[in-house]
Amino acid sequence: MSTGPLPRFLDPRKLADQGGTIRGDISVGELPRLREFRESQQENVAVDLAFCRDEEGHHCVHGSVATRLVVQCQRCLEPLTLDLDARVTLALAWGDDQMKALPSEYDPWLINADQMPLADLLEEEILLALPAVAVHEHCPHGLMEENAEDPSEDETETEKENPFAVLAQLKKGDREE
User: Fold this and answer.
1) How far is CA 39 from the centre of its chain?
2) Cβ–Cβ contacts within 10 Å for residue 113, how many?
3) Nearest-CA neighbor of 122 among 38, 1, 7?
4) How many Å separate Cα 65 from the centre of its chain?
């Protein structure tokens, strides 16, 4: 069991065989693939991972990786703070054949060395937890309210100037004949 400062490298097979756990904290700034989140570099990443072997003998990792990231809202382009809590359910695989044979409830973690950088796992889980499109529920500058009025005005104008009104009149004329 490891708590406190997180190891830079880990031996996932050994940890799973021994039923090891890793708990601790690291800053976002210590994870190279998260450097683009400049406003989040001092944020804490809480790690709680349990390594084990399941009933079928698969080497597994269960737990969570949680942090807070500041991203750009895709609606108003203002900063948006996201609380991320990634649930980890992985099975270790040492090749493509093992990956394909894993049960569907596990996400595969391809192991290519005895010692794996813990940062790789943490970065991947955090990046996968990000929403596809990050937006405020309610944008802070009222952007949605302003835009909500404009389309209704456009619809009214469109109804007044309907280009197909001429066709409707022609169709009525054909019925009368």
Assistant:
1) 18
2) 9
3) 7
4) 12
Per the CB < 8 A criterion, the answer to whether 65 and 45 are in contact is: yes
Number of H helices, E strands in the chain: 5, 8
Which positions ≥6 away from 169 have C-beta within 8 Å? none
Distance CA 64, CA 46 (A): 8
Distance of CA 158 to the CA centre of its chain: 40
pLDDT in tens, 3-20: 568 999 999 999 999 999
Mean pLDDT of the 56-84 span:
95
Contact call for residues 74 and 134 (beta carbons, < 8 A): yes
Q: Beta partners for 69?
A: 82
**Which alpha helices (H) appear in the chain, and where do they start and end?**
12-18, 96-101, 118-129, 143-160, 165-176
The alpha carbon torsion through 93, 97, 100, 103 (nearest 10 deg) reads -60
Helix (H, G, I), strand (E, B) or coil at 47: strand
Interval 32-46 mean pLDDT: 95
pTM of the predicted protein model: 0.74
C-alpha distances in Å from residue 147, one per residue of 35, 80, 154: 34, 20, 11
Q: Which residue has the higher pLDDT, 93 or 167?
A: 93
Q: Facing residues of 91 across strands?
A: 60, 108
